Amino acid sequence: MAVKIENIRNFSIIAHIDHGKSTFSDRLIQLSGIIADRDFQDQILDSMDIERERGITIKSQTVSLPYKGKDGEDYLLNLIDTPGHVDFSYEVSRALASCEGAFILVDASQGVEAQTLANMYLAMEHNLEVVPVINKIDLPSADIDWAKDQIKEDLGLDSSISLLVSAKTGQGMDSVFEAAVKLMPHPSGDALSPLQALIFDSHYDPYRGTVVHVRVFQGSLKRGDKILFMSNGSEYKVEEVGLFQIVRKPQEQLEAGQVGYIIAGIKMISDVRCGDTVTLAATPCTSAMAGFREPNPVVFSSMYPVAADDYEALSEALEKLKLNDASLVYEKDASAALGFGYRCGFLGLLHLEVVQERLEREYDISLILTSPSVRYEITRSDGVLQIVDNPALYPDPTEIEKIREPFINAAIIIPDKYMGAVMQLCLEHRGVSTTYQYLTRNRIEMKFNLPLAEVIYEFYDRLKSVTQGYGSFDYEIAGYQETDLVKLDFLVNGERVDALSQLVHRDKSVDRARVACEQLKNEIPRQMFKIAIQGAIGGKIIARETVSAYRKDVTAKCYGGDITRKRKLLEKQKKGKKRMKMVGNVEIPQSAFLSVLKSGK
Length: 601
Fold this sequence. Notes:
Layout: E1 8-14, H1 21-32, H2 49-54, E2 61-68, E3 74-81, H3 89-96, E4 101-107, H4 114-125, E5 129-135, H5 144-153, E6 163-164, H6 174-183, E7 196-205, E8 209-218, E9 220-222, E10 226-229, E11 235-237, E12 240-245, E13 247-251, E14 253-255, E15 259-263, E16 277-280, E17 299-305, H7 311-324, E18 329-335, E19 339-346, H8 349-362, E20 367-369, E21 376-380, E22 385-388, E23 400-415, H9 419-428, E24 432-438, E25 443-451, H10 452-455, H11 459-466, E26 472-483, E27 485-492, E28 495-496, E29 502-505, H12 506-523, E30 531-537, E31 540-547, H13 563-583, H14 590-595
Parallel strand pairs: 1-3, 1-4, 4-5, 5-6
Antiparallel strand pairs: 2-3, 7-8, 7-16, 8-15, 9-14, 10-11, 10-16, 12-13, 12-15, 17-19, 17-20, 18-19, 21-22, 21-23, 23-25, 23-26, 24-25, 27-28, 27-29, 27-30, 30-31
């Protein structure tokens, strides 16, 4: 499909979570007619089961839509649907690098929220043309004038060009294509220059190898060309190029300004890196493109296969997943209780859950995860600075001079009636209120300085419940501050289980230990002997629960008779149990490792 560069538009859809991006994409795909109505399904770009179940977008997806303009010209619109959740903002920044424009969706009843602003700034960093769209105008609670005021005040955009649509009913959607053509710039680039293409994503196809998603900035690329990856110098021969139109549509060639894919029989998964530049081996371009900032993982957890034989499969699965999720960071790790595994870094707790579910579903591996922790800076008494993200590496307390933990600047936007409840929640999590301001008549933005370690445990879920779903939360890392940290160990039947250890603030240690012991008591199955579950700091036990033993009624066969006969049988049973306890080995189910993470509130 040969289209002039002036008739190409590359744009993405950005918004806060739940403002209707996926439904908006659905309507555009339906209007373009690239898929028959009988094959259509809602949230068609959310192809993973986990995206459909949770109702969120995790991966940004590309689709090329043909459009016949009102001027009679044929246009090719490349639409990139992006996630809205704060954990996947790295995915958004990569998608924006291959666009010239963006539609920013604002919910007509909710207005501008935290991620709307955060994504708006990301779009501005990439110098994109931003067009505001007011969605959900069919809702009874929709207030269009109020939403326009917010677009003008909070986003600083021209609210007079706002498109009024309802993606659900399709009302006003036909104006979107024309707005993309009229208001967004076409890509620049020359099809005759040396090839310069940016890899912004990739995925693994079991039959074709690695499928590389690229945006071509200069030159052109066709089947049979020899390409070169500039970061590592590996060369491949192109087998197929094409566009994404829900399914892959092979094309004669990809030219400057287009977004598409390359298949080149790439078996070495590690050769493909997001942000790398692809060029022709014969006539390479002079310089590589800037690429992307490296993602900074903030939450760390170790993953171990339940069956030790699955270690190789886990290594392979992580490598394939890394292709599709560039923000995942991992390195080898080992534990006395759980054997060999990987220490992984994530952008947030939702990211951790998603990676775990994808490994279990897509690669069929059962996993055990250790308690998530953050990176602490420990200054030892000999002046050496040690970075610790794993409780197993925590040094002896006598060797520690001071400990610093990461803090975040959190922005929470809520209706003002929830101000007290949110204040209480943040104080419980060692937060300090810095400022607050009214955005509109009854919406308030509160800013807090919070320890990151407090936020990774269920903070977001509790914020949603205390604000009845109206609270929106966004954060940025604000550096390190001194803290009083202790290592909390858990002993099951006197044996320390290293995979359950946590690093916690001293003030919170007793509460955390009690709750975790209680959760473990509910998860560990009963045995023929009592099992003690203890929380300890060093040699000091600070919490204890006991899983009571199954008790066989050994006196059942004694009808009447002397009490001493019964006592004799009970004493005999007691000795047998004592012997069992000495050699008793307790199996801890996988659910117990996860239950320790729940606060029980």
